[in-house]
Amino acid sequence: MKLESIGYSSSFFTCFLLLVLLFVANGQPLVPALFIFGDSVVDAGNNNNLYTIVKANFPPYGRDFKNHKPTGRFCNGKLASDFTAENLGFTSYPPAYLNLKSKGRNLLNGTNFASAASGYYESTAKLYHAIPLSQQLEHYRECQNKLVEVAGQANASSIISGAIHLISAGNSDFIQNYYINPLLYKVYTADQFSDILIQCYSNFIRKLYALGARKIGVTTLPPMGCLPAAITLFGSESNNCVDRLNNDAVNFNRKLNTTSQSLQKMLPGLNLALLDIYQPLYDLVTKPSENGFFEARKACCGTGLLETSILCNHKSIGTCANASEYVFWDGFHPSEAANKVLADDLLTAGISLIS
């Protein structure tokens, strides 16, 4: 799948990267703040204290993160959004909003509202007692009020309009809801369900824009049929990517691209960048050795065929010793090493948000 490419020359791109490195080396973030919304791919711990089974605040999650402690990230170490924060020049990561005991100046550089098992479709989050995007928006509204209190209205408005707002959603809507929910898949085709999600996406962007967001980066769906757990569940005993799921992702991503372009034309001053993670992750899965990885079918945790969340725990038999050799950490989520590759691709895809 090819999304609309950005027409920059290679020399411009080289100069741009040098500029990024110069800013970062001087300790100057490229944007004032980073706000994050979405699902488990970017959740930094908001689910930790929720009444939900979808958590990652226990070993072996976080074993390669700083202090080797779990934080609620669905990874052995850093998320792609953590690397993105580093690439933007921040010296810390946007904190999980619900984990903050006090909310004040620690919000000035942004925060993370994402909740594992959330999605564009409101019912997906409710199925797992996660935080739906509508509630994440309410948390963002609260955050803005706190920013006004500590920085003043003018500074708060400047932070919000200059900040990057990163959104990752849609995967849980399909994998954790549509494909396993007869109330959905017997009523809607995958194409019809994707239309519903796109409408939810459009509404979310409009509401985020109404709250002052002007720089928004939206990740595409990954190659869902290549996730280890998806192959195990839907692959008919094959070890290959499930074409049906990948085709659904490609179809959704096309609609996401078209809708994003329409929104950008419709909403004055909006800078909306589509960040393709489908192709970069597909390349890692189908050509692991060419990208420095040893294993792409199995994840690191446990058998590597299914385990995620509570099934990926310190007693999981077979967990690998070196996660950097694996594209996936658990059945649904990339390893820190893969996240680093994806984050570098996000930086190049999001040039328009910081140039």
Molecular structure report:
With 355 residues, the protein is mainly alpha-helical. The protein has one domain: SGNH hydrolase (Rossmann fold, 3-Layer(aba) Sandwich). Helices cover 41% and strands 6% of the residues. It is built from 13 helices and four strands. A four-stranded parallel beta sheet has the order 1-2-3-4, sandwiched between helices. α8 packs parallel to α10.
Q: What is the topology?
A:
Elements: H1 10-25, E1 34-38, H2 80-87, H3 122-127, H4 133-151, H5 153-162, E2 164-168, H6 171-175, H7 182-185, H8 190-210, E3 215-219, H9 228-234, H10 243-266, E4 271-275, H11 278-286, H12 336-349, H13 351-354
Parallel strand pairs: 1-2, 2-3, 3-4
Helix pairs in contact: 2-12, 4-5, 8-10
Q: Give the strand order, joined by hyphens, for the main sheet.
A: 1-2-3-4
Order of helices and strands: HEHHHHEHHHEHHEHHH
Rg from Cα:
19 Å
> Given the structure, what is the number of helices?
13
Overall pLDDT, averaged? 92
Give the class-level CATH name. Answer: Alpha Beta
Outline? globular
Q: Which percent band covers the strand fraction? A: 5-15%
- Write down the CATH topology: Rossmann fold
Integer tally of domains: 1
Tell me what the CATH architecture is: 3-Layer(aba) Sandwich
* Biggest sheet overview: 4 strands, parallel
Which homologous superfamily in CATH is the superfamily?
A: SGNH hydrolase
**What is the terminal separation in angstroms?**
26 Å
Low-pLDDT windows of residues: 1-14
Compute the number of strand runs.
4
Helicity level? 40-55%
Overall SS class: mainly alpha
